[in-house]
Amino acid sequence: MENSEDSVDEEQDQISDSKQVEQPLNENKSFKDLGVVDVLCEACESLNWKCPTKIQIEAIPLAIQGRDVIGLAETGSGKTAAFAIPILQALLDNPQRYFALILTPTRELAYQISEQFEALGSGIGVKCAVIVGGMDMMSQALTLAKKPHVIIATPGRLVDHLENTKGFNLKALKFLVMDEADRILNMDFEFEVDKILKVIPRDRRTFLFSATMTKKVQKLQRASLKDPVKVEVSTKYQTVEQLQQYYLFIPVRFKDVYLVHIVNELIGNSMMIFCATCNGTMKIALMLRNLGYTAIPLNGQMSQNKRLSALTKFKAKNRSLLVSTDVASRGLDIPHVDIVINFDIPTHSKDYIHRVGRTARAGRSGRAITFVTQYDIELYQRIEQLIGKKLPLYETQDEEVLGLEERVAEAKRTATEQLKDMLESKSTKRKHGQGTKDDNFDNDTEAFVGVRKKFFGKPNKRKKFSKKK
Question: Residues in domain Helicase C-terminal (predicted)?
């Protein structure tokens, strides 16, 4: 059945008083030309941001003027700074605690936004608080008691604090930002967003930013925008020009073998592999490690500390493969990602834009390869329709790939046994009060790296696959 959220023929109605900005861009502008104060210009310079991006050139002056902004720009285009700079400038003019609230759909994105705010605001002493699920409520309540200037939160955990943390309220809030706004305004967060909107002032500034923005009137009106300006610096659903995109049509039973072939062929590159389920990320990561690759899983069933640890290892290049669910598909800025592999095709076409946006960021090049099985043809056609282009086939030599089948099958069997042992071990610990539900999935699979010796000898030594004789 066609998902209305995913349909390319989405309602074209606009909020009646919104305005489209379509002025020629002056690529040589500086942050000072946009009206940014000196102390923030210096912060941009210290971060090595030599000149503003297209979305920043359009959005920052309007935001500084006091307008509500709907910002639509491709992934990796500097949207965070487009709302962070105007907020910090307004905070300089009117210092107060609980000044701005940034809502994000994922925990990892919340931490990343906080890092950008602290980097930009280092010269003015800005204090931020990250309020997300999976972390201790009491320590978060103590952080909120210190009254930070900026709160970056996921909707669910923020509602928990609004209802249960004594003395905490947002009655004086001046700015509300919804990053990845189409997700925040989606039904997933409907209940929480309604609760938040009821307890914050109507007299505030509101910014919505995303790479894929809904145009449905009811959804945008829920954000209570006032005379918004729509800033759109790319076509509706666009992937960046530097991104090379391919598809690979394969029978579902050979997906694992083709994955190993591509990973082996492109060894030395940093890759993100997207799977549909938490279980899938664990199995694939274990299988790849059994074959000698430094893979690490990331999914929503891991504790928050373990999720952050996985990201840190990948960002530090201690792991070359991050096997993730869609928790890592939006907003995360990991500059060194060279290749994105859609092992499982996304159910919603818009998620494709966000997934492949993890590579080819900020003018760099990158590659994306999407696996299409006999069951995915309709979903894949929707993606092509959404991005408005036909993707080329990724060339492989079938005989060479299928030569790996035996080894991959053995690694996969071992991974299934390992995962079963892990789950049983965690279950036993929980029965004896030694573990929590959050421990269901480990963040790494290093407990099992010894298995690699069985296949390739020394754990740290990778052996290139050769064609099966």
Answer: 242-402
Rounded to whole angstroms, the Cα distance separating 37 from 41 reads 6
152-206 pLDDT, tens digit per residue, is: 999 999 999 999 999 999 999 999 999 988 889 887 788 999 999 999 999 999 9
Is-contact 426 435, C-beta < 8 A? Answer: yes
Summarize the confidence of residues 125-149 as an average pLDDT: 95
Query: Is the pLDDT reported for residue 350 higher than 90?
Result: no
Q: With contact defined as beta carbons under 8 Å apart, do 410 and 288 qualify?
A: no
Query: pLDDT value at position 428?
Result: 78
Give the length of the chain: 469
Q: Is 167:195 a contact under the CB 8 Å cutoff?
A: no
CA distance 248 to 89: 48
* DSSP structure string for 406-441: HHHHHHHHHHHHHHHHHHHHHHHHHHTTS--GGGGS
Hey, how many other C-beta atoms are within 10 angstroms of the C-beta on 305? Answer: 12
Cα dihedral 200, 204, 209, 215 sign: positive
- Sheet containing 229-232: order of strands: 19-21, 229-232, 69-72, 205-210, 175-179, 100-103, 150-153, 128-131
> Alpha-carbon distance 356 to 361, whole Å?
10
- State the Cα–Cα distance between residues 130 and 153, nearest whole angstrom: 6
Contact call for residues 412 and 256 (beta carbons, < 8 A) = yes
Per the structure block, which two tokens stand in for 117?
A: 């705010």
Q: Where in 132-202 does DSSP place strands (E)?
A: 150-153, 175-179
75-129 per-position pLDDT tens digit: 677 899 999 999 999 999 999 999 999 999 999 899 999 999 999 999 899 999 9
Could you tell me if 435 and 429 are in contact, meaning their C-beta atoms sit under 8 angstroms apart?
yes
Apex 255 CA angle, 253 and 256, nearest 5: 105
d(CA 297, CA 170): 36
For the four alpha carbons of 326, 330, 333 and 337, in that order, the dihedral sign comes to: positive
Do 58 and 231 meet the contact criterion of CB atoms below 8 Å apart? yes
Q: Which residues contact 134 (CB under 8 A, 6 or more apart)?
A: 107, 303, 304, 305, 307, 438
Whole-number Å distance between alpha carbons of 189 and 176: 16
Cα–Cα distance, 340 to 269 (Å, whole number): 10
Pairwise CA distance, residues 50 & 60, whole Å? 16
Other Cβ atoms within 10 Å of 265 Cβ, number: 14
